[in-house]
Write a structure and sequence with these properties.
elongated
Length: 186
């Protein structure tokens, strides 16, 4: 997983460096609707499990709205839908996280053409192992960095942590997800 995280961090750094073409902005330039997609790398942990789970890959679509509350501060909300597949449990057995729906609030600080933000929200997912599906839901929180590549296109990298309860199972699952994405602002 750490090699993949290094690759994501490198891509985010390149995006930030090449974003110089975008005009300097304040919070009002982040205001409005946006939508996009992201690539996710997830590494979940099951509470009390004797086996360390592996890393899976997936993607998400997201839509949201930002509102500037002064020259530098932005608040908003975001809804996303996605999945992560192929998380190895033991050789030949994998966990899939399907129909992952996340609703979260975001608050951020605009620095030129970039936005540093935190998020807090609710996540629901269907976890499937060997054809058996279990519902999971709980809190998700994270940090992100987004930068404008043009006046209407931005790139972002995020780290999110989820703490999900499994329906009918005494254990929970905690997920660590790193995402890199692109958004179109309207």
């Amino acid at each position: 997983m750490f090699t993949s995280l290094k690759n994501f961090a490198s891509a985010a750094a390149i995006s930030a460096v090449t974003a110089g073409a975008a005009a300097a902005q304040d919070a009002t330039d982040w205001q409005g609707f946006y939508g996009g997609f992201q690539f996710d790398i997830a590494s979940p942990e099951v509470d009390g499990a004797p086996v360390q789970l592996g890393t899976g890959h997936g993607g998400s679509l997201f839509v949201g709205y930002n509102h500037a509350i002064d020259a530098n501060w932005v608040v908003g909300g975001e809804l996303s839908y996605g999945q992560v597949s192929g998380i190895p449990i033991v050789p030949g057995i994998e966990l899939d996280m399907e129909d992952v729906i996340t609703l979260r609030g975001r608050a951020g600080y605009a620095l030129g053409n970039s936005l540093i933000y935190g998020s807090l929200g609710y996540q629901q997912a269907d976890l499937t192992i060997l054809g058996t599906t279990v519902d999971a839901d709980g809190v998700v929180f994270g940090l992100g960095f987004e930068t404008m590549l043009t006046e209407t296109v931005s790139a972002r990298i995020e780290y999110n942590r989820s703490d999900l309860d499994l329906d009918g199972v005494p254990a929970g699952i905690e997920g660590n997800t790193v995402s890199i994405g692109v958004a179109m602002h309207f």
